Each structure stands twice: as structure tokens, then as C-alpha cells.
Amino acid sequence: WPRSTTARARSSISRTDVAWDDMVVVGRIARPHGLRGHVIVNPDTDFVETRFRPGADVWIRTAGGERRLTITSARVQGGRPVIAFDGLPRIEDVKGMGGLELRIPENALQPLGSGQYYEHQLVGCTVETTGGAAVGSVVRVEGGAGGSRLVVEGRRGEVLIPLAVDICVDIDVAAKRIQINPPEGLLGLNETKRST
């Protein structure tokens, strides 16, 4: 399941058009790299080369507020992007940026095929069985290419639900609802009890 990213042309999205909390995290700045204002990014996207390319815009939030930055150079090194921003040509300009999230507006995300979802679309969905029994709410998505699972927080604790079409039979991200048809014993097998 893809995480979050985009392939988009430069746009006229201004800071006043999208609230910070409505943006999607596509990575976090790890640390400066070299002396010319480059930073290493820990990507939170399946589309690294598309998202972190020259001309792409990302937003950061510092104590001074939100700010749009335009990427001027990019390469992938050791699986992580090394990027530079317009107007920040020196290490001193980026030295304090480690740990900052890089975000984009949700409407700038790359469209996905039918039956594919971004993780942020699944988080917050209520989960219920096809019989109508409430299971809980998705708090995160774990896993990767080998198989993803929903981490659902319910009244009996945390439940792990494989994100498979034969189990998650109806996913409606607009309604924030997922209907599951769990095999017998699945819900009790992998729930973690809350300490009482």
C-alpha cells in the first residue's frame, strides 16, 4: 500500500490555501549533508524520485510558522534523497532543520489505482465486521511490500488486521469506514489486551 507522495507540476498553491494539519507528510529531514545547504531526507513515500525532484515544493513548520520550500537539486544516496532548497545555499541555512517534517497538500498526491489507498486515508477509519460488530479505529498501518496490516484500537485493546482483499471486503475512505470478514479466530488471536 503506498504511503504518501505526489507527481505534480509546479502549482500556484499558496500557504493560505491549505492548513498544515490537512497536509500529508512525505518525509522528515534527517540532517545537513555537506557544506552547500543539502539535507538528507528520511522519506515517507513510495515515490521517492518523483516526490523529491528539482522544482517540487514541500512545506515545513518551524517556530516561525509554515514555509514553502522549492527543491533545486535532488539525488538518491543509500535509498534516501539528498536535496537542496531554493534560497538556502549554505550549511548554516539548514543546520537547525533536522527532524522537520516535509509536507505537501493532499490534493497534490499521485492518483492511485482502484483498490489502493494511502496510509493516511486508512488511519482514523472505523472498522466493523460484515455482521455489524464494532472492532475499533485504525491507528496506524504497518508492514510493507510483503504485506500490510491495520493496527486497530478497540475496546478490548489493539487488534491486527491483515490488509487483504478477502478480509477487508469494503474500504470507504470518504466515509472513513472499513468492513472486514475476518477468518474464525482472527480477532481474538492477535489482539493485545489492555492492562487493567
Q: Could you list some keywords that capture this structure?
A:
196 residues; 8% helix; 4 helices; six-stranded antiparallel β-sheet; mainly beta; disordered N terminus
> Order of strands side by side in the largest beta sheet?
3-4-5-2-1-6
- Number of helical segments? 4
Structural class: mainly beta
The share of residues in extended strands comes to 35-45%
- Helical content stands at under 10%
Query: How many β-strands, per DSSP?
Result: 12
Describe this structure in words.
- By secondary structure, the protein is mostly beta strands.
- Helix content is 8%, strand content 43%.
- It contains 4 helices and 12 strands.
- The chain has helices spanning 48-51, 91-94, 119-122, 186-189, and strands at residues 23-33, 38-43, 57-62, 65-77, 80-85, 101-105, 126-129, 134-144, 147-154, 157-162, 168-172, 177-180.
- The strands form 2 sheets. The protein has a 6-stranded antiparallel beta sheet with strand order 3-4-5-2-1-6.
- The chain is elongated.
- The protein starts with 22 loop residues before the first strand and ends in a 7-residue tail after the last helix.
- Residues 1-16 have low confidence and may be disordered.
Describe how the helices and strands are arranged.
Elements: E1 23-33, E2 38-43, H1 48-51, E3 57-62, E4 65-77, E5 80-85, H2 91-94, E6 101-105, H3 119-122, E7 126-129, E8 134-144, E9 147-154, E10 157-162, E11 168-172, E12 177-180, H4 186-189
Parallel strand pairs: 7-12
Antiparallel strand pairs: 1-2, 1-6, 2-5, 3-4, 4-5, 7-8, 8-9, 9-10, 11-12
